[in-house]
Amino acid sequence: MHSPGAGVTAIVPSWLQAPADVNELLPQLWSRTVGRDADGVLTVGGLSAAEIAATHGTPVFVLDEEDFRARAVAYRDAFADAFADLCDGADVYYAGKSFLATGVARWIAEDGLHLDTCSSGEFTLGLRGGVRPDWIALHGNNKSRGEIRAALQAGLGRIVVDSLEEIEVVASIARELGVVAPVMLRVTVGVEAHTHSYIATAHEDQKFGLSLAGGQAELAVARVVGHPELQLRGLHSHIGSQIFDMGAFEVSARRLLGLHHGVQREHGVELPEIDLGGGFGMAYTSEHQPLGPAEIAGRLAEIVARECLSQGIAVPKVSVEPGRSISGPSTFTLYEVGTTKDVALDGGARRRYVSVDGGMSDNIRTALYDADYSATLASRASTAPGVLSRVVGKHCESGDVVVKDEFLPADAAAGDLLAVPGTGAYCRSMASNYNQLPRPGVVSVRDGASRVLVRRETPEDLLALDAG
Ligand code: LLP
Asked: Greatest CA span in the chain, whole angstroms?
């Protein structure tokens, strides 16, 4: 292992080790077909990073189709298996907000997953990609009447109602259209979970859902049951993101099933389904050790079976909505390095700033959530030692950081390619045009071929939006 150098230890996060080999690829961070060729160039889907950059330019999101689809199918199968004996299987709704394109929706349709959307833009992509309308869910705390109407006209399988007001809106639109609207109720179960911790007492203070503790959820059930235009398909809860601790799901499932049971007692209605939402964690750095789909499905099946047994009720159909844990690890962002700069810090440490040709416009997560990422030199292998580096973008803002801390080879320089893994979720989907930067494209790779899923924007695209 290389010594990180004078004073650096003090500024290196505790989880980050100076690598023995700067070319090493930690398997949990990279999609399954990523490797290095004989020259040390990063490869994915049978293509080298250099070829991809030459064909598609940089920055570019490079999505490993085999990896994405294998994860999606692993979720589908793990949930079907784990719940097979309990309730005839469980449905997996891929959360399209993490990343969606028509090409991705096509994989979802071909591979037999359902789709979770939260706007008409998202469900339009799903329908375009051939996802069965009745396998699409529509979420949102402020859906427009137009979105609700379009969803009902398209025959979406469920509208997840988020407020008391919305019950009346959906009912009135269903009445106008002469249809019965399938709805679920999004329940705030009083659990908020992120990464390693969760709090199971409070966290009602947010915009989503109908409060269980405050009695809104029960009131909503009574109102929906009273509307002939609405068919209550079940209860839903989503408790957060990047969760590694299944204890949070246990509390949420218990509370949701308690209400499910209450509905049976009060209204004599056995709801067909509960949805436990998404939020299963993925690895962004060596610090994260996510559970796989089989373990997640197995644990959730145990939890649901135990709760139903203790409440003396039949197990309803279960559904989940993973986004990040399917799309996130499938993709890396490929950048070209520009300037590098060493900065002296108090205590004698130095930090190297490595600038790339994108930044917070293609990955806002570092600035917005203080998220950690990793990076590696992609255009070649290096024999230089690792130096503590910060990968920054080209935006006019000092918070424009992509990777806060990584040991990059000391000889990384202008013209090199740099890859940042784990950027398949909430990076392209949250990209902006800050500083009038065109957003990068998304390219999928498989078996030695690349395909554009989302075209790179051009300066002309941006000028076309400007009214002049
Ligand atoms: N279901 C519902 C109702 C959700 O609200 C979400 C995420 C998911 C499923 C999928 O969660 P996932 O499995 O992807 O964690 N922009 C933030 C994440 C916001 C998540 C919003 N809802 C980020 O970049 O971390």
From this structure: 73
**Residue 155, CA distances (Å) to 41, 199, 320, 360 in order:** 48, 37, 21, 38
Which domain, by its residues, includes 415? 27-64+330-465
Q: Which residue's CA is minimally distant from atom 24 of ligand 1?
A: 426
Question: 241: CA distance to ligand 1 center in Å?
Answer: 6
For position 4, what pLDDT does the model report? 58
- Which residue stretches of the chain have pLDDT < 70? 1-7, 201-203
Query: Quick check: is 118 catalytic?
Result: no
Q: What are phi and psi of 101, to 5 degrees?
A: -150, 165
pTM passes above 0.85: yes
Task: Name the catalytic one among 87, 118, 308, 396.
Answer: 396
pLDDT of residue 1: 44
The answer as to whether 73 is a domain residue is no
Q: How many percent of the chain have pLDDT more than 70?
A: 98
- Residue 279, sorted as left (phi over 0), alpha (psi -120 to 50) or beta, turns out to be left
Beta-bridge mates of residue 409: 386
Flag whether 11 is in a domain: no
Neighbours of 31 (CB within 10 A): 26
| Secondary-structure breakdown of the chain: helix, strand, coil percentages, each rounded to the nearest 5 | 35, 25, 40
CA 329–ligand 1 middle distance (angstroms): 15
Claim to verify: residue 141 and residue 269 sit in the same structural domain: yes
Among residues 296, 322, 348, which one ends one of the domains?
322
